[in-house]
Amino acid sequence: MASISVSFSSSFISSPIPQDKCKILHTPNPNPILRLIRCGIAAPASKASSSSSSIAKKRHWKEGEFPGISETSLPESRRRTPIKNVKKKLDRKLKAKAWVNTVTETLSDRIDKKQWLQALEVFDMLREQPFYEPKEGTYMKLIVLLGRSGQPQRAHQLFNTMVEEGCEPTSELYTALLAAYCRSNLIDEAFCILNEMKNLPLCQPDVYTYSTLIKACVDASKFELVELLYEEMDERSITPNTVTQNIVLSGYGKVGKFDQMEKVLSNMLESTTCKPDVWTMNTIISIFGNKGQIDTMERWYEKFRNFGIEPETRTFNILIGAYGKKRMYDKMSSVMEYMRKLQFPWTTSTYNNVIEAFAAVGDATNMEYTFNQMRAEGMKADNKTFCCLINGYANAGLFHKVISSVRLAKKFEVPENTTFYNAIISACAKAEDLIEMERVFNRMKDNQCQPDDTTYSVMVEAYRKEGMNDKIYYLEQEKQTTTMISDDEKSEEAN
Length: 495
Fold this sequence. Notes:
It contains 22 helices and 2 strands. It is an all-alpha fold. Among the domains are: about 365-415, no CATH class; about 415-495, no CATH class.
Protein backbone atom coordinates (compact mmCIF):
# COMPACT_ATOMS: atom_id res chain seq x y z
CA MET A 1 0.00 0.00 0.00
CA ALA A 2 1.22 3.48 -0.74
CA SER A 3 2.45 5.50 2.21
CA ILE A 4 -0.20 7.50 3.96
CA SER A 5 0.71 10.97 5.18
CA VAL A 6 -1.75 12.11 7.83
CA SER A 7 -1.07 14.64 10.58
CA PHE A 8 -2.39 13.51 13.95
CA SER A 9 -1.29 16.53 15.97
CA SER A 10 -3.71 17.78 18.57
CA SER A 11 -6.91 19.34 17.34
CA PHE A 12 -6.72 21.77 20.26
CA ILE A 13 -3.84 23.60 18.54
CA SER A 14 -5.25 26.74 16.93
CA SER A 15 -2.48 27.46 14.45
CA PRO A 16 -2.07 25.51 11.20
CA ILE A 17 0.24 22.50 11.42
CA PRO A 18 3.51 22.84 9.45
CA GLN A 19 4.01 20.27 6.75
CA ASP A 20 7.18 18.87 8.33
CA LYS A 21 5.16 17.60 11.29
CA CYS A 22 3.24 15.08 9.18
CA LYS A 23 4.15 11.51 10.09
CA ILE A 24 3.97 8.32 8.06
CA LEU A 25 1.42 6.01 9.59
CA HIS A 26 3.23 2.88 8.39
CA THR A 27 6.18 3.63 10.66
CA PRO A 28 6.09 4.01 14.45
CA ASN A 29 5.64 7.60 15.48
CA PRO A 30 8.94 8.75 17.09
CA ASN A 31 7.30 11.61 18.91
CA PRO A 32 5.02 11.05 21.93
CA ILE A 33 1.33 11.79 21.46
CA LEU A 34 0.49 15.31 22.45
CA ARG A 35 -1.65 15.35 25.51
CA LEU A 36 -3.76 18.21 26.80
CA ILE A 37 -3.98 18.32 30.58
CA ARG A 38 -6.57 20.58 31.99
CA CYS A 39 -6.09 21.57 35.59
CA GLY A 40 -9.09 22.91 37.44
CA ILE A 41 -8.11 25.30 40.21
CA ALA A 42 -10.87 25.91 42.69
CA ALA A 43 -11.03 29.27 44.42
CA PRO A 44 -10.67 29.00 48.22
CA ALA A 45 -14.00 29.07 49.96
CA SER A 46 -14.71 32.26 51.90
CA LYS A 47 -15.07 31.76 55.63
CA ALA A 48 -17.65 33.54 57.67
CA SER A 49 -16.24 36.03 60.14
CA SER A 50 -16.02 34.57 63.61
CA SER A 51 -16.45 38.00 65.12
CA SER A 52 -19.95 38.44 63.73
CA SER A 53 -22.59 38.17 66.42
CA SER A 54 -26.23 37.46 66.06
CA ILE A 55 -28.59 40.15 67.32
CA ALA A 56 -31.28 38.68 69.50
CA LYS A 57 -34.76 39.89 68.64
CA LYS A 58 -36.89 41.15 71.50
CA ARG A 59 -39.97 39.02 71.82
CA HIS A 60 -43.13 40.94 72.63
CA TRP A 61 -45.94 38.45 72.04
CA LYS A 62 -46.66 35.27 70.18
CA GLU A 63 -47.03 35.60 66.47
CA GLY A 64 -50.72 35.86 65.59
CA GLU A 65 -51.74 37.25 69.00
CA PHE A 66 -52.35 40.76 70.36
CA PRO A 67 -50.84 42.02 73.63
CA GLY A 68 -52.90 41.13 76.62
CA ILE A 69 -55.38 39.05 74.63
CA SER A 70 -55.28 35.28 74.49
CA GLU A 71 -56.83 33.21 71.74
CA THR A 72 -58.70 31.21 74.36
CA SER A 73 -60.22 34.34 75.86
CA LEU A 74 -62.05 35.15 72.64
CA PRO A 75 -65.50 33.76 71.72
CA GLU A 76 -65.31 30.56 69.67
CA SER A 77 -66.68 32.36 66.59
CA ARG A 78 -63.82 34.88 66.75
CA ARG A 79 -61.03 32.43 67.43
CA ARG A 80 -58.36 32.28 64.78
CA THR A 81 -56.81 29.13 63.35
CA PRO A 82 -53.84 28.15 65.48
CA ILE A 83 -50.62 29.20 63.77
CA LYS A 84 -49.15 25.70 64.07
CA ASN A 85 -51.90 24.33 61.82
CA VAL A 86 -51.25 27.07 59.26
CA LYS A 87 -47.56 26.19 59.38
CA LYS A 88 -48.36 22.54 58.78
CA LYS A 89 -50.37 23.44 55.71
CA LEU A 90 -47.58 25.63 54.40
CA ASP A 91 -45.06 22.86 55.03
CA ARG A 92 -47.25 20.39 53.18
CA LYS A 93 -47.50 22.74 50.21
CA LEU A 94 -43.76 23.31 50.19
CA LYS A 95 -43.11 19.58 50.36
CA ALA A 96 -45.60 18.94 47.56
CA LYS A 97 -43.97 21.64 45.44
CA ALA A 98 -40.53 20.14 46.12
CA TRP A 99 -41.86 16.69 45.18
CA VAL A 100 -43.29 18.03 41.91
CA ASN A 101 -40.01 19.75 41.07
CA THR A 102 -38.06 16.56 41.77
CA VAL A 103 -40.39 14.37 39.70
CA THR A 104 -40.42 16.96 36.89
CA GLU A 105 -36.63 16.81 36.82
CA THR A 106 -36.86 13.02 36.71
CA LEU A 107 -39.26 13.25 33.77
CA SER A 108 -36.87 15.56 31.93
CA ASP A 109 -34.00 13.16 32.64
CA ARG A 110 -35.96 10.18 31.27
CA ILE A 111 -36.79 12.12 28.12
CA ASP A 112 -33.16 13.16 27.64
CA LYS A 113 -32.08 9.52 28.02
CA LYS A 114 -34.76 8.43 25.52
CA GLN A 115 -36.36 6.09 28.07
CA TRP A 116 -39.89 6.42 26.74
CA LEU A 117 -41.58 3.83 28.97
CA GLN A 118 -40.10 5.25 32.20
CA ALA A 119 -40.93 8.77 30.99
CA LEU A 120 -44.60 7.83 30.56
CA GLU A 121 -44.70 6.25 34.02
CA VAL A 122 -43.29 9.39 35.63
CA PHE A 123 -45.67 11.56 33.61
CA ASP A 124 -48.66 9.50 34.79
CA MET A 125 -47.53 10.03 38.40
CA LEU A 126 -47.48 13.77 37.84
CA ARG A 127 -50.86 13.87 36.12
CA GLU A 128 -52.50 12.20 39.13
CA GLN A 129 -51.62 15.20 41.28
CA PRO A 130 -54.44 17.80 41.38
CA PHE A 131 -52.00 20.72 41.50
CA TYR A 132 -50.02 19.66 38.38
CA GLU A 133 -51.06 20.96 34.98
CA PRO A 134 -48.98 19.61 32.08
CA LYS A 135 -48.02 22.20 29.51
CA GLU A 136 -47.91 22.04 25.72
CA GLY A 137 -44.12 21.78 25.77
CA THR A 138 -44.21 18.64 27.92
CA TYR A 139 -46.66 16.93 25.57
CA MET A 140 -44.50 17.99 22.62
CA LYS A 141 -41.35 16.44 24.12
CA LEU A 142 -43.14 13.19 24.94
CA ILE A 143 -44.77 12.88 21.51
CA VAL A 144 -41.43 13.50 19.80
CA LEU A 145 -39.74 10.93 22.08
CA LEU A 146 -42.40 8.30 21.36
CA GLY A 147 -42.11 8.96 17.64
CA ARG A 148 -38.34 8.53 17.71
CA SER A 149 -38.75 5.37 19.79
CA GLY A 150 -41.04 3.75 17.23
CA GLN A 151 -44.20 4.18 19.31
CA PRO A 152 -46.59 6.19 17.09
CA GLN A 153 -49.71 4.56 18.54
CA ARG A 154 -48.74 5.56 22.07
CA ALA A 155 -47.96 9.04 20.76
CA HIS A 156 -51.48 9.23 19.35
CA GLN A 157 -53.01 8.04 22.64
CA LEU A 158 -51.07 10.72 24.49
CA PHE A 159 -52.22 13.31 21.96
CA ASN A 160 -55.86 12.30 22.52
CA THR A 161 -55.38 12.45 26.29
CA MET A 162 -54.00 15.94 25.93
CA VAL A 163 -57.07 17.08 23.98
CA GLU A 164 -59.46 15.41 26.46
CA GLU A 165 -57.81 17.25 29.34
CA GLY A 166 -58.43 20.61 27.69
CA CYS A 167 -55.04 21.40 26.19
CA GLU A 168 -55.65 22.91 22.78
CA PRO A 169 -53.77 21.19 19.93
CA THR A 170 -51.56 23.27 17.67
CA SER A 171 -50.07 22.89 14.23
CA GLU A 172 -46.72 22.05 15.86
CA LEU A 173 -48.22 19.26 17.99
CA TYR A 174 -50.05 17.79 15.00
CA THR A 175 -46.83 17.90 12.99
CA ALA A 176 -45.00 16.06 15.79
CA LEU A 177 -47.71 13.36 15.76
CA LEU A 178 -47.51 13.12 11.97
CA ALA A 179 -43.73 12.78 12.24
CA ALA A 180 -44.17 9.90 14.71
CA TYR A 181 -46.08 7.92 12.07
CA CYS A 182 -43.59 8.92 9.37
CA ARG A 183 -40.66 7.58 11.41
CA SER A 184 -42.38 4.18 11.52
CA ASN A 185 -43.10 4.31 7.77
CA LEU A 186 -46.85 4.43 8.41
CA ILE A 187 -47.47 6.85 5.56
CA ASP A 188 -51.21 6.23 5.22
CA GLU A 189 -51.73 7.12 8.88
CA ALA A 190 -49.58 10.22 8.42
CA PHE A 191 -51.79 11.33 5.53
CA CYS A 192 -54.83 10.89 7.81
CA ILE A 193 -53.25 13.28 10.30
CA LEU A 194 -52.62 15.74 7.44
CA ASN A 195 -56.28 15.60 6.38
CA GLU A 196 -57.39 16.10 9.97
CA MET A 197 -55.20 19.20 10.20
CA LYS A 198 -56.69 20.66 7.03
CA ASN A 199 -60.15 20.50 8.63
CA LEU A 200 -59.08 22.51 11.67
CA PRO A 201 -58.80 26.28 11.09
CA LEU A 202 -56.26 26.80 13.88
CA CYS A 203 -54.08 23.77 13.00
CA GLN A 204 -53.39 24.23 9.32
CA PRO A 205 -50.35 22.37 7.93
CA ASP A 206 -47.30 24.46 7.15
CA VAL A 207 -44.06 23.94 5.24
CA TYR A 208 -42.63 21.84 8.11
CA THR A 209 -45.63 19.52 8.06
CA TYR A 210 -45.29 18.94 4.34
CA SER A 211 -41.50 18.58 4.52
CA THR A 212 -41.88 15.86 7.14
CA LEU A 213 -44.37 13.93 5.03
CA ILE A 214 -42.34 14.43 1.85
CA LYS A 215 -39.29 12.94 3.57
CA ALA A 216 -41.29 9.84 4.52
CA CYS A 217 -42.46 9.46 0.92
CA VAL A 218 -38.91 9.96 -0.38
CA ASP A 219 -37.52 7.34 2.03
CA ALA A 220 -40.20 4.92 0.79
CA SER A 221 -39.38 5.85 -2.85
CA LYS A 222 -43.01 6.94 -3.38
CA PHE A 223 -42.11 9.86 -5.61
CA GLU A 224 -45.59 10.01 -7.13
CA LEU A 225 -46.86 11.08 -3.69
CA VAL A 226 -44.08 13.66 -3.51
CA GLU A 227 -45.39 15.28 -6.70
CA LEU A 228 -48.93 15.31 -5.29
CA LEU A 229 -47.74 16.97 -2.12
CA TYR A 230 -45.86 19.59 -4.13
CA GLU A 231 -49.05 20.35 -6.07
CA GLU A 232 -51.04 20.62 -2.84
CA MET A 233 -48.45 22.99 -1.36
CA ASP A 234 -48.72 25.17 -4.46
CA GLU A 235 -52.53 25.25 -4.18
CA ARG A 236 -52.25 26.35 -0.54
CA SER A 237 -49.56 28.96 -1.40
CA ILE A 238 -46.95 27.16 0.70
CA THR A 239 -43.48 27.60 -0.79
CA PRO A 240 -41.02 24.71 -0.35
CA ASN A 241 -37.95 25.79 1.58
CA THR A 242 -34.36 24.72 1.14
CA VAL A 243 -34.79 21.84 3.61
CA THR A 244 -37.69 20.44 1.57
CA GLN A 245 -35.71 20.62 -1.65
CA ASN A 246 -32.64 19.04 -0.08
CA ILE A 247 -34.77 16.10 1.09
CA VAL A 248 -36.08 15.52 -2.44
CA LEU A 249 -32.59 15.96 -3.92
CA SER A 250 -31.25 13.26 -1.63
CA GLY A 251 -34.11 10.91 -2.49
CA TYR A 252 -33.66 11.24 -6.23
CA GLY A 253 -29.91 10.81 -5.92
CA LYS A 254 -30.11 7.65 -3.83
CA VAL A 255 -32.26 5.88 -6.43
CA GLY A 256 -30.16 7.17 -9.33
CA LYS A 257 -32.72 9.61 -10.75
CA PHE A 258 -30.08 12.17 -11.61
CA ASP A 259 -32.18 13.97 -14.23
CA GLN A 260 -34.88 14.77 -11.68
CA MET A 261 -32.20 15.66 -9.15
CA GLU A 262 -30.61 18.20 -11.48
CA LYS A 263 -34.06 19.59 -12.30
CA VAL A 264 -34.72 20.27 -8.62
CA LEU A 265 -31.27 21.79 -8.23
CA SER A 266 -31.83 24.06 -11.24
CA ASN A 267 -35.10 25.27 -9.71
CA MET A 268 -33.24 26.06 -6.50
CA LEU A 269 -30.65 28.11 -8.37
CA GLU A 270 -33.39 30.11 -10.09
CA SER A 271 -35.44 30.56 -6.92
CA THR A 272 -35.25 33.62 -4.70
CA THR A 273 -36.66 31.87 -1.61
CA CYS A 274 -34.82 28.53 -1.42
CA LYS A 275 -31.28 28.96 -2.66
CA PRO A 276 -28.83 26.05 -2.34
CA ASP A 277 -26.88 26.00 0.92
CA VAL A 278 -24.07 23.95 2.44
CA TRP A 279 -26.55 21.11 3.12
CA THR A 280 -27.32 21.04 -0.58
CA MET A 281 -23.60 20.75 -1.26
CA ASN A 282 -23.22 17.98 1.32
CA THR A 283 -26.20 16.09 -0.10
CA ILE A 284 -24.90 16.12 -3.67
CA ILE A 285 -21.26 15.26 -2.96
CA SER A 286 -22.38 12.54 -0.51
CA ILE A 287 -24.54 10.93 -3.20
CA PHE A 288 -21.70 10.69 -5.71
CA GLY A 289 -19.10 9.91 -3.03
CA ASN A 290 -21.09 6.92 -1.76
CA LYS A 291 -21.43 5.66 -5.33
CA GLY A 292 -17.66 5.92 -5.80
CA GLN A 293 -17.99 8.53 -8.56
CA ILE A 294 -15.07 10.62 -7.31
CA ASP A 295 -14.63 12.78 -10.43
CA THR A 296 -18.31 13.79 -10.41
CA MET A 297 -18.13 14.47 -6.69
CA GLU A 298 -15.14 16.76 -7.12
CA ARG A 299 -16.76 18.63 -10.02
CA TRP A 300 -19.88 19.32 -7.97
CA TYR A 301 -17.75 20.43 -5.03
CA GLU A 302 -16.05 23.02 -7.24
CA LYS A 303 -19.41 24.12 -8.68
CA PHE A 304 -20.82 24.79 -5.24
CA ARG A 305 -17.68 26.69 -4.26
CA ASN A 306 -18.16 28.83 -7.37
CA PHE A 307 -21.74 29.48 -6.24
CA GLY A 308 -20.25 31.05 -3.13
CA ILE A 309 -21.10 28.17 -0.75
CA GLU A 310 -18.39 27.58 1.84
CA PRO A 311 -17.71 24.02 3.09
CA GLU A 312 -18.08 22.98 6.72
CA THR A 313 -16.66 20.18 8.84
CA ARG A 314 -19.27 17.69 7.60
CA THR A 315 -18.39 18.55 3.99
CA PHE A 316 -14.75 17.61 4.59
CA ASN A 317 -15.77 14.44 6.45
CA ILE A 318 -17.82 13.38 3.42
CA LEU A 319 -14.80 13.91 1.17
CA ILE A 320 -12.52 11.99 3.53
CA GLY A 321 -14.97 9.08 3.69
CA ALA A 322 -15.30 8.95 -0.11
CA TYR A 323 -11.54 9.01 -0.66
CA GLY A 324 -11.02 6.40 2.06
CA LYS A 325 -13.45 3.94 0.48
CA LYS A 326 -11.58 4.23 -2.82
CA ARG A 327 -8.22 3.90 -0.98
CA MET A 328 -7.12 7.31 -2.24
CA TYR A 329 -5.06 7.94 0.87
CA ASP A 330 -3.09 10.89 -0.53
CA LYS A 331 -6.28 12.87 -1.17
CA MET A 332 -7.71 11.78 2.17
CA SER A 333 -4.59 13.11 3.87
CA SER A 334 -4.71 16.35 1.88
CA VAL A 335 -8.25 17.09 3.01
CA MET A 336 -7.30 16.46 6.63
CA GLU A 337 -4.32 18.80 6.35
CA TYR A 338 -6.56 21.39 4.71
CA MET A 339 -8.94 21.14 7.66
CA ARG A 340 -6.04 21.84 10.03
CA LYS A 341 -4.93 24.80 7.95
CA LEU A 342 -8.41 26.34 8.08
CA GLN A 343 -8.67 25.45 11.78
CA PHE A 344 -11.61 23.08 11.27
CA PRO A 345 -11.60 20.57 14.17
CA TRP A 346 -11.31 16.87 13.49
CA THR A 347 -14.45 15.23 14.85
CA THR A 348 -15.47 11.69 15.78
CA SER A 349 -16.82 11.33 12.24
CA THR A 350 -13.43 12.37 10.82
CA TYR A 351 -11.62 9.68 12.76
CA ASN A 352 -14.32 7.11 12.01
CA ASN A 353 -13.83 7.65 8.28
CA VAL A 354 -10.07 7.10 8.60
CA ILE A 355 -10.52 4.04 10.82
CA GLU A 356 -13.08 2.64 8.38
CA ALA A 357 -10.67 3.10 5.45
CA PHE A 358 -7.96 1.08 7.20
CA ALA A 359 -10.45 -1.48 8.55
CA ALA A 360 -11.71 -2.28 5.05
CA VAL A 361 -8.24 -3.51 4.01
CA GLY A 362 -7.40 -5.13 7.35
CA ASP A 363 -4.66 -2.60 8.16
CA ALA A 364 -4.81 -3.11 11.92
CA THR A 365 -1.63 -1.13 12.67
CA ASN A 366 -2.79 2.15 11.18
CA MET A 367 -6.33 1.54 12.40
CA GLU A 368 -5.09 1.19 15.99
CA TYR A 369 -2.82 4.22 15.66
CA THR A 370 -5.76 6.32 14.48
CA PHE A 371 -8.00 5.06 17.28
CA ASN A 372 -5.37 5.74 19.95
CA GLN A 373 -4.81 9.26 18.64
CA MET A 374 -8.58 9.77 18.60
CA ARG A 375 -8.73 8.93 22.30
CA ALA A 376 -5.65 11.06 23.05
CA GLU A 377 -7.38 14.08 21.55
CA GLY A 378 -10.41 13.56 23.73
CA MET A 379 -12.75 12.39 20.97
CA LYS A 380 -15.55 10.12 22.19
CA ALA A 381 -15.75 6.82 20.33
CA ASP A 382 -19.26 5.88 19.23
CA ASN A 383 -21.06 2.85 17.87
CA LYS A 384 -19.60 3.24 14.38
CA THR A 385 -16.06 3.47 15.79
CA PHE A 386 -16.31 0.06 17.41
CA CYS A 387 -18.11 -1.49 14.45
CA CYS A 388 -15.18 -0.41 12.27
CA LEU A 389 -12.63 -1.72 14.78
CA ILE A 390 -14.40 -5.09 14.98
CA ASN A 391 -14.59 -5.35 11.18
CA GLY A 392 -10.95 -4.30 10.82
CA TYR A 393 -9.63 -6.86 13.29
CA ALA A 394 -11.79 -9.55 11.70
CA ASN A 395 -10.44 -8.68 8.24
CA ALA A 396 -6.90 -8.86 9.66
CA GLY A 397 -7.59 -12.22 11.30
CA LEU A 398 -6.97 -10.80 14.80
CA PHE A 399 -10.02 -12.32 16.44
CA HIS A 400 -8.69 -12.00 20.00
CA LYS A 401 -8.73 -8.23 19.47
CA VAL A 402 -12.35 -8.44 18.36
CA ILE A 403 -13.15 -9.68 21.87
CA SER A 404 -11.14 -6.88 23.51
CA SER A 405 -12.93 -4.30 21.34
CA VAL A 406 -16.32 -5.65 22.44
CA ARG A 407 -15.26 -5.42 26.07
CA LEU A 408 -13.95 -1.89 25.59
CA ALA A 409 -17.23 -0.86 23.95
CA LYS A 410 -19.10 -2.17 26.99
CA LYS A 411 -16.75 -0.24 29.28
CA PHE A 412 -17.48 2.94 27.31
CA GLU A 413 -21.23 2.18 27.52
CA VAL A 414 -21.60 2.24 23.74
CA PRO A 415 -25.19 1.36 22.70
CA GLU A 416 -25.45 -2.20 21.36
CA ASN A 417 -27.71 -1.85 18.34
CA THR A 418 -28.33 -4.15 15.37
CA THR A 419 -25.29 -2.86 13.46
CA PHE A 420 -23.04 -3.55 16.45
CA TYR A 421 -24.24 -7.14 16.81
CA ASN A 422 -23.99 -7.68 13.06
CA ALA A 423 -20.31 -6.70 13.18
CA ILE A 424 -19.65 -9.27 15.93
CA ILE A 425 -21.65 -11.98 14.15
CA SER A 426 -19.74 -11.29 10.93
CA ALA A 427 -16.43 -11.53 12.82
CA CYS A 428 -17.45 -14.88 14.31
CA ALA A 429 -18.41 -16.11 10.84
CA LYS A 430 -15.01 -15.10 9.44
CA ALA A 431 -13.34 -16.92 12.33
CA GLU A 432 -15.54 -19.95 11.53
CA ASP A 433 -16.64 -19.99 15.17
CA LEU A 434 -20.29 -20.85 14.61
CA ILE A 435 -20.95 -21.71 18.26
CA GLU A 436 -19.95 -18.22 19.36
CA MET A 437 -21.87 -16.77 16.42
CA GLU A 438 -25.04 -18.45 17.69
CA ARG A 439 -24.39 -17.22 21.24
CA VAL A 440 -24.08 -13.63 20.02
CA PHE A 441 -27.25 -14.06 17.94
CA ASN A 442 -29.19 -15.30 21.00
CA ARG A 443 -27.80 -12.51 23.17
CA MET A 444 -28.85 -10.03 20.49
CA LYS A 445 -32.46 -11.24 20.71
CA ASP A 446 -32.37 -11.38 24.51
CA ASN A 447 -31.44 -7.70 24.53
CA GLN A 448 -34.52 -6.90 22.40
CA CYS A 449 -32.33 -6.02 19.41
CA GLN A 450 -34.14 -6.95 16.21
CA PRO A 451 -32.09 -8.95 13.64
CA ASP A 452 -32.24 -7.57 10.10
CA ASP A 453 -31.54 -8.90 6.61
CA THR A 454 -27.78 -8.50 7.10
CA THR A 455 -27.91 -10.61 10.27
CA TYR A 456 -29.66 -13.50 8.55
CA SER A 457 -27.64 -13.33 5.32
CA VAL A 458 -24.30 -13.48 7.20
CA MET A 459 -25.43 -16.45 9.29
CA VAL A 460 -26.95 -18.30 6.33
CA GLU A 461 -23.71 -17.92 4.37
CA ALA A 462 -21.69 -19.19 7.35
CA TYR A 463 -23.93 -22.27 7.64
CA ARG A 464 -23.81 -22.84 3.88
CA LYS A 465 -20.00 -23.03 3.92
CA GLU A 466 -20.22 -25.81 6.48
CA GLY A 467 -23.07 -27.58 4.68
CA MET A 468 -25.40 -27.14 7.65
CA ASN A 469 -28.67 -27.11 5.69
CA ASP A 470 -30.82 -27.90 8.72
CA LYS A 471 -29.54 -24.74 10.45
CA ILE A 472 -30.32 -22.73 7.33
CA TYR A 473 -33.87 -24.11 7.23
CA TYR A 474 -34.62 -23.22 10.88
CA LEU A 475 -33.04 -19.79 10.49
CA GLU A 476 -35.17 -19.01 7.43
CA GLN A 477 -38.29 -20.19 9.29
CA GLU A 478 -37.41 -17.90 12.19
CA LYS A 479 -36.90 -14.99 9.80
CA GLN A 480 -40.34 -15.53 8.25
CA THR A 481 -41.98 -15.74 11.69
CA THR A 482 -40.23 -12.56 12.83
CA THR A 483 -41.34 -10.74 9.69
CA MET A 484 -44.95 -11.86 10.19
CA ILE A 485 -44.94 -10.69 13.83
CA SER A 486 -43.47 -7.35 12.79
CA ASP A 487 -46.17 -6.91 10.14
CA ASP A 488 -48.88 -7.79 12.66
CA GLU A 489 -47.52 -5.20 15.12
CA LYS A 490 -47.58 -2.55 12.41
CA SER A 491 -51.19 -3.46 11.57
CA GLU A 492 -52.16 -3.19 15.25
CA GLU A 493 -50.54 0.25 15.45
CA ALA A 494 -52.35 1.31 12.31
CA ASN A 495 -55.66 0.33 13.88
